[in-house]
Amino acid sequence: MPDVVILTGAGISAESGLETFRAEDGLWAQHRIEDVCTPEALSRNPALVHEFYNKRRAALRDVAPNAAHEALAKFSAEFPGKILVITQNVDDLHERAGQSGLLHMHGELLSLKCTRCDFRQAFSGESHAEMPCPDCGAGRLRPDIVFFGEMPYFMDEIQKALSGCEVLIAIGTSGNVYPAAGFAELARHYGAESWLVNLDPPQNHRDFQRFFQGRAGEQVPLMLDELRRWLTRA
Ligand code: APR
């Protein structure tokens, strides 16, 4: 059972140059969620959905992990088995920073899954609507992304980790989307502390006892120094 659960959102990848969702010029200002991120959108206009994720997949080739990803991965290696990182992000920047103990609760850009069976495959190219499932042949391959209205991944493991952790830390997330937006409140219900690293106060900032305000690249290393003191306290 991890002592610390760290939830990350688009804000941790912002300093690598990836767009967030709810900034003024963010992804949801450029695209309607109903057009690109719902099961109905996929059946109505699969080409548009694939185009949206192909663009975001291609953008991964031009970015690299930033100081926040690196600090988090290094810290997790210092406390093996004690840190679980749950990311809402679908990019691979945590992996590229060497992060261990990582769960992608909203899926991954570099993966496709079948619309009918459990088939999944790593994928970094251009996907399109007419990719028959190589396993069942009946379904089509789709982005392995949790659309709005679909169940996030790993919820059993997440629920268990939140019920037993000592600290829940949220980094770079606006607290708009449940269930992730409720993790701090849930962890506190089980007696954990809740810390926040964010550029500005998110929707659910009242759920947190400590707030490291500022850019993730600056604040995550400072927060981790504090967390080290907390974990090694007598
Ligand atoms: N450092 C720290 N925080 C930052 C930075 C930065 N450099 N840049 C932006 N932020 C903060 C913003 O202030 C905002 O609170 O990151 C947060 C990003 O919020 P969103 O754009 O809403 O992204 P996120 O919270 O990850 O969205 C959650 O919503 O659309 C769904 O599935 C999608 O996983 C996503 C989920």
Please supply descriptive tags for the structure shown above:
2 domains, Rossmann fold, three-stranded antiparallel beta sheet, 234 residues, SIR2/SIRT2 'Small Domain', alpha/beta, binds adenosine-5-diphosphoribose, Ssirtuin_cat_dom
CATH topology label of the largest domain: Rossmann fold
Strand order, main sheet: write it out.
Answer: 3-2-1-7-8-9
What is the CATH homologous superfamily assignment of the largest domain? TPP-binding domain
Low-pLDDT parts are none
| Element string (H = helix, E = strand) | EHHHHHHEHEEEEHEHEEH
What is the overall number of helices?
10
What class do helices, strands and sheet pairing give? Answer: alpha/beta
Any idea what the shape is?
A: globular
- Rg value: 18 Å
Biggest beta sheet attributes = 6 strands, parallel
Distance between the termini: 20 Å
Task: Please name the CATH architecture of the largest domain.
Answer: 3-Layer(aba) Sandwich
CATH class of the largest domain: Alpha Beta
| Count of β-strands | 9
Q: Which ions, cofactors or small ligands are bound in this entry?
A: adenosine-5-diphosphoribose
What percentage of amino acids are in beta strands?
15-25%
Number of domains: 2
Arithmetic mean of pLDDT: 97
The helix fraction, in percent, is 25-40%
Structural description of this entry:
The chain folds into two domains: 1-17 and 65-106 and 152-234, 3-Layer(aba) Sandwich (Rossmann fold), CATH 3.40.50.1220; 19-62 and 110-145, SIR2/SIRT2 'Small Domain'. 35% of the residues lie in helices and 19% in strands. It contains ten helices and nine strands. The longest helix has 16 residues, at 216-231. The two termini are 20 Å apart. Bound molecules: adenosine-5-diphosphoribose. Residues 9-11, 14-15, 20-23, 26, 88, 106, 172-174, 176-177, 198-200, 202, 215-216 line the site of adenosine-5-diphosphoribose. Its cofactor is Zn(2+).
